[in-house]
Specification:
globular, binds pyridoxal-5'-phosphate, 4-stranded antiparallel beta sheet, 7-stranded mixed beta sheet, single chain
Amino acid sequence: MVNFDVYKIREDFPILKSKVNDYPLVFLDNGATSQKPRRVIDGIKYFYENINANPMRSIHHLAEKATEAYVDAREKIAKFINASPEEIVFVRNTTEAINLVSFALPFKRGERVATTYLEHHSNILPWLKLKENGLGVDFVDVDENFDLDMDYYKEMPAETKLVTVAHESNVTGTINDVKKICSLAHSSDTLCLVDAAQSAPHMKIDVNDMGADFLAFSGHKMLGPLGIGVLYINKNVAPKLRTFMTGGEMIKSVKINKVEYADMPSFFEAGTQNVEGAYGLGLAIDYLNGVGLNNIESYEKGLMAHLYQSSKTIKDIDIYSGRSKKNGAIFAFNLKKLHPHDIAYLLDKKGIAIRSGFHCAQPFIEDKLHLEGAARASMYFYNTKEEMDAFVNGLKEIQVEYG
Ligand SMILES: Cc1ncc(COP(=O)(O)O)c(C=O)c1O
């Protein structure tokens, strides 16, 4: 049961009123970044007009306000995923979060990381970089429906120190059973990192229930500003980690021959923090909570059902999403006679924004789909059934005009 009026919701997003090439904008590139509600846009202006100062340092009035804004945002985010504030590290984005883990986890020679074929480059490259220093890197395979080979996790090499997996694939929308993966990892004393970049915006996440040791997501994909992201680090794992970046605010005491580092989460937040970003993300979370993650998930299910139904009327289409046990609001496809970049270009002429190419998942697209690229429409809760129809009709029209 969905408990919101999408047309009312859309009123909160000024950019959705835009026209592109004389057509109303149909924004279906939400997997890349989401649009922002007025509450976040106005909040950022409010921040600079009323709060701005360097937090956690000075004791003057504004510095106190900036500190409070930063601390409050961290609390909201902790609550959002059922964590404690000291488990929430602010980073720039998911990419930085995963890189941080790759630097902070002390790997020994011969140890291994298991990533998967479904990953975004940001959950592949940090591990391939460490491979240069002797880390073993395994890629968990997928079956013909793009579900992960769960047997792998039952019989992992004993040297596997970390399994790292996307909660939701940014290409196929496959939703992986990360709770099961984390539980299997833990049963062989292996840590578990979950890339929630595509899931956190769309569904309720409870890190305790999931059992992740690390969870990464980006604020900009969930109504927040660019340049702010989150890395959750389980409090039992944090003491095992080394510093990532060093500098101001991540220390208790600095002497020429002895440094004492700050506790979590400051330990990983060297330098002046992105308070504006954290504040904006806090407002985005207020907005998401107001709509309700369960509402968002149900609404998007209905939207996708509508899209899959109407996509049956499109000829010469290959669809790569929607085949797994659980799928998100992502529709990846190709039209047989058009290159994915041409599809994106021609749809843009009709005001419809989608993405095309490798989607930062070249190993999956090339080795598993055997393609040079794919087109992808990615939805959010402010998209409507009418927009799904405009998208499907747009595809049919470009097939007639250019196919
Ligand atoms: C699954 C997944 N992981 C990681 C990322 C990287 O996110 P960011 O560019 O915000 O670091 C993305 C971005 O699309 C993604 O979809």
